[in-house]
Design a protein that fits this description.
The structure is a homodimer of 253-residue chains.
Chain A: H1 5-12, H2 16-24, E1 32-33, E2 39-40, H3 43-57, H4 62-70, H5 76-109, H6 116-124, H7 143-153, H8 157-179, H9 187-203, H10 209-221, H11 223-229, H12 236-250
Helix pairs in contact in A: 1-2, 3-4, 5-6, 8-9, 9-12, 10-11, 10-12
Chain A binds a DNA duplex (30 and 30 nucleotides) through residues 4-6, 15-18, 20-21, 25, 34, 36-39, 56, 61-63.
DNA sequence: CTTGACCCTCACGTAACGGCAGGCTCCACT
DNA sequence: AGTGGAGCCTGCCGTTACGTGAGGGTCAAG
């Protein structure tokens, strides 16, 4: 019982040498050794290794990892929570970088050259910032986002009018279905959801079922959206969201 | 003309030694030297440095960076695009790690211990894209979300009318500021942003600056929102988002 | 004409391993 | 019982991307 270096290395996707190194510096010493001196890693060792690799991935120096893993009164859950926190912060950082890249691209295509300060805005300060779950950020900077921006930039006033008119019709359809007591996962509601998805795809960007789910969540999360629906019928917003989900489920996505 | 090592170092948030190093290995040699041997970095040097730091951040070894930056026929835009792509991939990876952490937390609180294989699933192989699976779930179940739902459920038709009227006034304010050519990070725009944030907080839920940023991104990301603003003035949506960000920056958040 | 901030070039130190040498151990097969 | 190959051990030197002075010029301000 217990795992050999080679097994652990394969499992964790690191080299044997790395495990030797962690043993040398006392970061992760196997719980046991065989009579002939072979390393034997216990399950507890594996858990520790998991945490080590996580913190390492996030750029912590090994010495510091040793400290935080050995600090008394810290259990598994503490670390998982901290790692979760660190991850979202890091994602935030990368998203800022994405935004910076987009600005740079824009400046580039417009032939403007950035000032030195603008150029490095994103690198200099890594703010010790509180993060908060950001809603629409999920797909900010994705392909769909770009597509949408490009297409919308080209739309005329007339286009907008037709676009909103079409949207209004779908909304009214939802309102009617809802007040009529039709289920959100029924034929009618799902049909309207699909219509809406097509609407977005036609006018804005390629709206996958997954993205469509996201939109549904956004509609209930943000009151500005709800303001379009709730006055028609209280609860309509959530009804629409549920319809989007049902429709996505039906499509097997 | 040209910048000294110290200036460049401060700008880019690296040490002088790092710049010396990049010079030594030929990754980034300053365009000129003064008579006394001082390094002088040109604007082109700065742009190169920008790319160097980006690729470095993403884990590329310096030697490789030198190769891809020197490869013939690659201009700025090529690199920006590639960086953008790399960033989104990296974000995807981190999101998978987040999901893994969440699974681990669940297992932990339920007293289940993971098998060795499960433990390292996320590290070893980076899977062919199958993420985004839980798109909307990010907001679902958060505090703000629940709060919003509870409050909105209690709103009467009159409440909605007042709510939308208030929102409309803010929107018109933005439209005017925008067409007047006022900057998004100016007093007026930021004031309107703050007004909007207060509006949300009063009617819906406790809207932190971070959440407010998120809303701004949502406005540009979703055409249904844009439909409210773009017809008033093309580009207004992004203007509003920028104002939200500026306002959040001002609040030090 | 001095002083403090800034710059230069060696040159050695460090972190986190990679890689190899030289030698034991294990077990499956003949 | 013997043997071959996979796996393990402990050194030990190499590498990357800098950190950290040492020892000494440079430059604008007072």
């Amino acid at each position: 019982m217990g795992h050999s270096v080679g097994q652990v290395a394969r499992l964790a996707g690191v080299t044997v040498r790395t495990l030797h190194h962690y043993d040398e510096i006392g970061l992760l010493s196997p719980g046991q050794r065989t009579a002939s001196g072979y390393r034997r890693y216990t399950d507890a060792d594996l858990e520790r290794l998991q945490h080590v690799l996580f913190y390492r991935e996030l750029g912590f120096p090994l010495e510091e990892i040793a400290v935080i893993l050995d600090e008394p009164g810290s259990d598994t859950l503490t670390h998982l929570r901290r790692q979760h926190e660190l991850l979202s912060r890091r994602i935030g950082r990368l998203r800022e970088m994405t935004a910076a890249i987009e600005r740079a691209m824009e400046a580039n295509t417009m032939g403007i050259s950035l000032t030195p300060e603008e150029r490095f805005e994103l690198f200099g300060d890594f703010r010790p910032e509180e993060h908060e779950a950001e809603a629409g950020e999920l797909w900010g900077g994705t392909e769909a986002f770009e597509q949408s921006r490009r297409r919308m930039a080209k739309m005329t006033k007339d286009d907008w009018a037709r676009f909103t008119a079409e949207a209004a019709r779908t909304t009214e359809g939802f309102a009617k279905a809802f007040t009529d007591g039709l289920p959100a996962d029924g034929e009618v509601a799902m049909g309207l959801a699909e219509e809406h998805r097509a609407h977005i795809t036609r006018w804005c960007y390629d709206c996958s079922y997954e993205i469509h789910r996201g939109l549904g969540e956004m509609y209930v999360a943000d009151p500005r959206f709800a303001a379009n629906y709730e006055p028609l019928a209280p609860g309509l917003t959530r009804y629409i969201r549920d319809a989007f989900h049902a429709n996505a489920d039906r499509a097997g996505s």
